[in-house]
Design goal:
It is a single chain. The protein is 43% helix and 15% strand. It has 243 residues and is of the alpha/beta class. It has a single domain (12-141, 183-232), classed as Decaprenyl diphosphate synthase-like (Undecaprenyl pyrophosphate synthetase), CATH 3.40.1180. It has a six-stranded parallel β-sheet with strand order 3-4-2-1-5-6, with helices on both faces. Helix 2 (23-29) crosses helix 3 (34-55), helix 3 (34-55) packs parallel to helix 4 and helix 3 crosses helix 8. It binds 3-methylbut-3-enyl trihydrogen diphosphate (2 copies) and magnesium ion. The site of one 3-methylbut-3-enyl trihydrogen diphosphate has 12 residues, from strand 2.
Length: 243
């Protein structure tokens, strides 16, 4: 039986998050510049989105650029920003045809203005799409997200909008970039690194974690299916006993 055939279609995670890692090493292994790896990562994004859509996943969050990634050489940052704009341009039709809604999370105001404009454009154009929501994490950092949430909550206390005693996990979640989006049931990280790198620290509290040594440009639909199948074999206890 193929991996796809083994997947229980009634137990597909509603939300899958992916740390797309290993582009640089993939390029270096081929004696190429890091950006060559990023360019080849685009088809893996397409594969993951297609696989997620076909399985019926409702939310796919992709970690594309972290707050820490601003510390990379300017040439690489510029190339990544250019690649993002080019990819949105080339994929727009496919997004609309396949009902893919685009959202972003992160400190979007940090991105170059032309990137922000392109993102606003794709968010607006795909706002009625309802097959799957793909959330791009851009200039995203979990600690920044949480501290910004705390700041806005403090402001709301100061202006009397909320009382301190109302603050609880549910209210807090509503101040995060991911307000209204269910927590991921499954997190995938490629490239063999076993860490979260400041990604969704709050939202991953009870997420199943899946690590693979596959480098992001080699990630295929089959790899996505493998991760979902692995997830389906886990017993999610949420602190309770098996009974
Ligand atoms: C992931 O690949 C893409 C981004 C972080 C933008 P990397 O660029 O981190 O590739 P490695 O980890 O150096 O191989
Ligand atoms: C995490 O990958 C960020 C993204 C995939 C966008 P990094 O390559 O930046 O993470 P570290 O530096 O290895 O932790
Ligand atoms: Mg990396």
């Amino acid at each position: 039986m193929s991996v796809l055939e083994q997947i229980d279609k009634t137990k597909v995670p509603e939300h899958v998050a992916i740390i797309m890692d290993g582009n640089g090493r993939w390029a270096q292994q081929r004696g190429n510049q890091r950006i060559f790896g990023h360019k080849n990562g685009v088809k893996a994004v397409r594969a993951a989105t297609e696989a997620a859509g076909e399985l019926g996943v409702k939310y796919l969050t992709l970690y594309a650029f972290s707050t820490e990634n601003w510390n990379r050489p300017k040439s690489e940052v510029d190339a990544l920003m250019g690649l993002l704009v080019d990819t949105i341009n080339s994929e727009m039709e496919t997004l609309l045809k396949n009902g893919i809604r685009i959202l972003t999370i992160g400190d979007i105001g940090m991105l170059p203005v032309r990137v922000q404009q392109k993102l606003n454009d794709v968010i607006e154009k795909t706002s009625k799409c309802n097959a799957i929501t793909t959330i791009l994490a851009l200039s995203y950092g979990s600690r920044l997200e949480i501290s910004e949430a705390a700041k806005r909550m403090a402001m709301d206390v100061l202006t009397g909008k909320i009382l301190p005693e109302q603050i609880n996990p549910e209210l807090f979640s509503g101040y995060l970039y991911t307000a209204g989006i269910p927590d991921p049931e499954l997190l995938i990280r490629t490239s063999g690194e076993i860490r979260l790198s400041n990604f969704l620290l709050w939202q991953l509290a009870y997420t199943e974690l899946y690590f693979t040594t596959v480098l992001w440009p080699d990630f295929s639909k089959e790899e996505f299916y493998k991760a979902v199948l692995d997830y389906q074999k886990r017993e999610r206890r949420f602190g309770k006993t098996s009974q």
